[in-house]
Amino acid sequence: MEAPIYICPATAADASIIQRIVERSIRIGCVLDHRNDARLVIPWLAQQACDHIHAWLADPRRYLNIALLHDKPIGAGMAAANGDITFCHVQPEWCRRGAGRALMADLEGWLRIRGTAGVHLNSTRSGAAFYQRLGYRESAQPLTQRGMQTFPMHKPLAASA
């Protein structure tokens, strides 16, 4: 049996780790979306640079978390107080082992504590089935963002969980 995955709030010291997790997840795990086209990958990664992550960590309206297994970072996620989940990325070799589910449960818990009635996100094609398994449903027609198709999704949050 594998060790439990530990989720904790991210700190400024985690910014470069989060950037590496996001980069590997995008480059390897999201090939279906960007098809290894540098014109799509480079701008996507630029939006996840360390300076952006530091700014997000300093913003009290945002919450970043990190997933650890044996003290090794394997995933990261971010939510905004308005109910948006901005990202949930897991190192490709750790996908389908519970890290994404644990990250999302923690992000949803943070939003629930703030009285958020529902969660919104824009999923890539690569992530859509994962979010559907967590109870998210498409809430609008697919969009094109950064040259890639995304799927607006929503999930109501119960008052307590």
TrEMBL record:
CDD domains: NAT_SF. InterPro entries: Acyl_CoA_acyltransferase (IPR016181), Bact_Acetyltransf (IPR050832), GNAT_dom (IPR000182). Keywords: Acyltransferase, Transferase. Residues 5-158 form the N-acetyltransferase domain. Pfam families: Acetyltransf_10. It comes from the Bacteria. Signal peptide: none annotated. One of its GO terms (molecular function) is acyltransferase activity, transferring groups other than amino-acyl groups. This is GNAT family N-acetyltransferase. The lineage of its organism: Bacteria, Pseudomonadati, Pseudomonadota, Gammaproteobacteria, Pseudomonadales.
